[in-house]
Design brief:
- The chain has 14 helices and nine strands.
- It is an alpha/beta fold and 344 residues long.
- The chain has two domains: 89 residues, Arginyl tRNA synthetase N-terminal domain (Gyrase A, domain 2), CATH 3.30.1360.70; 176 residues, Rossmann fold (3-Layer(aba) Sandwich), CATH 3.40.50.
- The strands form three sheets. It has a three-stranded antiparallel β-sheet with strand order 1-3-2. A three-stranded parallel β-sheet has the order 5-4-9, with helices on both faces.
- α7 crosses α10 and α10 packs across α11.
- The longest helix has 25 residues.
- The structure holds arginine.
């Protein structure tokens, strides 16, 4: 490891005054909790016995006596309780940082602490047939920044776009498209027209609740892989992805996987089986749930009465899959605060 020039100057100077090796002092130096109090701190506890003085006193005496010392890089020494705190000369700090940045270029700030381990980052993750919202944009740029930070720290980042491409809403979309949609409108402004169809469905379903039954039936067909329903769903997905990719291209952002919610369809049964084997599930009002009342989190719904799975079920299958597939050091989800309960 390359030595920090500031810590080196401090440890050499203090070694002269303390009769302790510079190496030992170097290793004692720590970052103050509050950077206002100093750039680096030397805890004085270990010297108390030898010097027969309280650590507070040692810190105070040094702060006083070192003001006249010949520092090159240090501006000030101050006692903060039992710590002797050092403030770096700002001009020297600036010179040091800039020379590092210029010298190391894009390697600046990098390390190998990640040891090649995987960090899975679930980010962006917009919903098919819905507009790409500002919340998705936020997740996209933060997730992408994290992706690169972890790469620089020696991890292998795995970027996953967990597309919202499954759920009962696709039954509604299919009903709406069959009733009021057309190829022309899908071609002209796909995401907008799909979204309009979706809102129209909700308006109409208020007065014609039978539409909801129809939507459930369509979703069932989709779940069973029926041809027409699947074809429509694939088109919704394709058109939406085209629009999302336009945004990712502008930002220069790429994902390693576009494994959305539908990817977990064939992994749901084994996930539920596992939860059942662990005695975590129960049936409540015909639905399969995990009771989290004792954590003050209510009930987590896994399967509705009609057997349809939910967002949470697919995320549970997702985390198990990611765990097995990537053996990750971390799995991060970059999402809005409104999902706090879900992730708890
Ligand atoms: N599609 C969700 C939304 O737009 C975000 C998904 C976040 N990721 C996840 N694994 N649940 O709100």
């Amino acid at each position: 490891m390359k030595r920090d020039v500031f810590k080196t100057e401090i440890s050499e100077m203090m070694s002269e005054h303390l009769d302790v090796s510079a190496d030992d002092i170097y290793n004692l130096l720590e970052q103050p909790r509050d950077r206002e109090l100093g750039d680096i701190a030397l805890p004085c506890f270990t010297f108390a016995k030898k010097m027969k003085k309280a650590p507070q006193q040692i810190a105070m005496d040094f702060a006083e006596s070192l003001t006249d010392a010949e520092w090159n890089l240090i501006d000030e020494t101050k006692a903060v309780g039992p710590f002797l705190n050092f403030h770096y000369k700002l001009s020297e700090l600036a010179r040091y940082v800039i020379s590092q940045v210029v010298g190391k270029q894009s390697e600046y700030g990098g390390s190998d602490e990640g040891g090649g381990h995987n960090v899975v980052i679930d980010f962006s993750s917009p919903n098919i047939a819905k507009p790409f919202g500002v919340g998705h944009l936020r997740s996209t740029v933060i997730g992408n920044a994290l992706y690169h930070v972890f790469e620089k720290l020696g991890y292998n980042s795995v970027g996953i776009n967990h597309l919202g491409d499954w759920g009962t809403q696709f039954g509604k979309m299919i009903v709406a498209f069959k009733r009021w949609g057309s190829d022309e409108m899908l071609r002209s402004d796909p995401v907008r027209s799909l979204f309009d169809l979706y809102t129209k469905f909700h308006r109409e379903a208020k007065e014609h609740p039978e539409l909801d039954d129809e939507a459930r039936a369509e979703f069932k067909r989709l779940e069973e892989g029926e041809e027409e329903a699947t074809r429509l769903w694939e088109r919704f997905k394709e058109y939406s992805l085209e629009e999302f990719n336009r945004i990712y291209d502008i930002l220069g952002i790429k994902f390693d996987y576009y494994t959305g919610e539908s990817f977990y369809n064939d992994k749901i049964d084994s996930t539920i089986k596992l939860l059942e084997e662990m005695n975590l599930t129960e049936v409540s009002q015909e639905a399969l749930i995990v009771d989290l009342e004792k954590y003050d989190l209510g009930a987590c719904l896994l399967k509705k009465g009609d057997n349809a799975t939910l967002y949470a079920t697919r995320d549970l299958a997702g985390i198990l899959y990611r765990h097995n597939e990537f053996n990750f050091a971390k799995c991060l989800y970059v999402v809005g605060a409104s999902q706090a309960l879900h992730f708890k």
